[in-house]
Amino acid sequence: MKHSLIAVSLLTLTACGGGSSTDEDPVPLPTPPPPAATISGKVIDGYVTGATVFLDLNGNTILDNNEPSATTGDNGEYSLDLDTEQYDCQAYVPLVVDVPVGASDSDTGEVTEAYQLVFPPSMGSAIDTGDITDITPLTTVIWESIKSEFLLKDEDLDNPNLACDAIRDNHEKIDELARHIEQTLKDIAAHYNISQDAIFADYIANGDSATHELAVLIVKGLKKGFAEAAELKQNHPNSYVDVKYLKTSDGWVRKEYIYTASGNDNSNGWSSHAKVESTTHSVSDDLEVIGEQIDFYNRRGSGKNVGDDKIILATSEETCNTREYLNYYEQLGTNEVHEREMTNITSTCADEDNGKYVFNMQWSDWDKRLGTIGQYIIRFDVEAKQFMMFSDIERFHQNKNQLDYAAINAEIDGLSYHYDDDISDTTALYETFSFVTLTKMVEENGLRVEYKKVMVGFDGWNYETTRFNADGTYNKECKAWDADAWTDC
Q1: Can you give the C-alpha Rg of the chain in angstroms?
Q2: Which H/E stretch holds residue 272?
Q3: I need a surface site. Which of 28, 151, 317, 431 has the fewest CB within 10 A?
């Protein structure tokens, strides 16, 4: 998304002649600061007149007082002036369009069902449409596809959306989201059988009837999702609710998402954690008939403070798996945290094994994510029908008042392997662990560098080095266990 900068002329006024001001001279009004940039384009279903376009700085999909907005005119045209702070945020938050009942659509006339259209965050150069930003059903599909990546699922917030302030300086997250957007564009092009250029084009002006027909169907899904979310909200008044219709590799689907923020303290100092429920069903090609369930996700948990430390327990159920999480955060210094995590996975798929994952993370700088991580997958002994370690630690959420955290922490701390250790013989490790990854993150010349080595069975280690640049991009090199030199990954 590129926006044309408005040139600013600074005029210096110099007194000339012998004139002077008097008490009767009018007091000049202060000149408002010029905008730092302007976003302009059209809102297109047909061309939509009377809709409200705004830059959603806090990600809550509601126009707030501090957010710049404009009303679309003839042919759906809008122009949005941004100040410097808003301009700094425009690449990281969506442009949202409220299409109200009573707006005018050049295709269908007066709008009788309210809905929203969205242009997604560009994340730098992930989306580049030139100087014009047209907001259409197809740009909205991008946002609907990536929206869940912008949600803070584990935060104690009424609004879980990732706002500008939470992402603007997080280069790692920006890079992650940019890659996700790029993949989403490829998926949309494949699933909807259109070019990426067509996603951002004015299909009416171009006479592209196929894309226009597709847009009509997408808007039908947007209206249905908007209305169904409002109805669902009545049964979940304290939750964030979203319903969307999308075309995926499984065909058209309906995705229902409910987020409930964490609650107050209950027994023994535990507080209920944020709850996330998501269900996906297949849908007929005309979006009228809801079919079978094809995906399911349900996560809930609890949190507790122990002095300066914090414990978080959670359980998530998915279509094929149920996962249990135990996280223990120990505050060692101002910005130094020792985090331990254990994950139990119970598979409901007949051809998959259960798993037990352990992370031991020592953050020397929590904000910059500097420190070390040891990740282990505990080997399962088929004959003994038990794991080689931590066999008896399970049902975290159910047994939260009986778990011995001191003993669990001590056992995890016993896994003290480090990236810099010389572990040339992995035979002993491989008897206990089916997978080991050792990572250290350091700062070199003001930039973060990640060194990682991954155990390859009895053979040894594969190595990766990732160097992050100031703009959030990165360069990665790899070296296999049997290679002498580093190469691009």
Answers
A1: 27
A2: strand 271-272
A3: 28
**Predicted local distance difference test score (pLDDT) of residue 383:** 87
CA angle 409, 412, 417 (to 5 degrees): 140
- Token digits for 267? 């027994």
Q: Tell me the average confidence (pLDDT) per consecutive run of 10 residues in the chain, 489 residues long.
A: 35 36 56 75 96 94 93 95 91 95 94 94 83 92 88 69 84 86 91 90 94 93 93 91 91 93 73 88 95 92 89 90 93 91 86 84 92 96 89 87 92 94 89 95 95 93 93 87 91
Contact 200, 218 (CB under 8 A): no
Contact indicator for 38, 90 with CB cutoff of 8 Å: no
Query: What's the token pair of residue 60?
Result: 């809550």
Take residue 47 and report the two structure tokens written for it: 């061309």
In whole angstroms, how far apart are CA 43 and each of 122, 170, 392, 463? 18, 31, 58, 49
- Joined tokens for residue 163: 């706002």
Phi-psi region of 371 (alpha: psi -120 to 50; beta: other; left: phi over 0): left
DSSP result, 384-427: TTEESS-TT---TTTTTTT--HHHHHHHHHT----TTS-----H
Separation of alpha carbons 178 and 279, rounded Å:
26
